[in-house]
Target: DUF1232 domain-containing protein
Amino acid sequence: MDRKRRTAAAGQAWQIYSETLQPEVPGFWERFRAVPRMLKSVLRGQYKGMSFGTLGLLALGLVYIISPIDAIPDVIPIAGIADDTGLALWLAAVLVKSAGDFVMWERSGRPTVIVGEPID
Model:
């Protein structure tokens, strides 16, 4: 990963961390505990804040991390572990951000939109 991407990834991780420290926003542990509820709601079609495509990418990322087959083999020092670590950080960032949005959705009473109905 080049320097610009690492800097951008670190900036995004810091932004998400800083967001969890704000008073009205869900904290990290609340988000962590909300992940299973969020996944169930996405799979049931109740929560539209995360697409099935994003859910699929998260699943593929998890399979890649667990799988012994890597794009960069782990026997190569540093680089072999860096790709898995980078992917794990991306997975964690997406889950923490999405779980925060989900908790806010839950707090707002789980509003739903009925297709074809006007919204005031």
Q: What stands out?
A: Helices lie at 3-20, 28-44, 52-66, 79-107. The two ends are 47 Å apart (CA to CA).
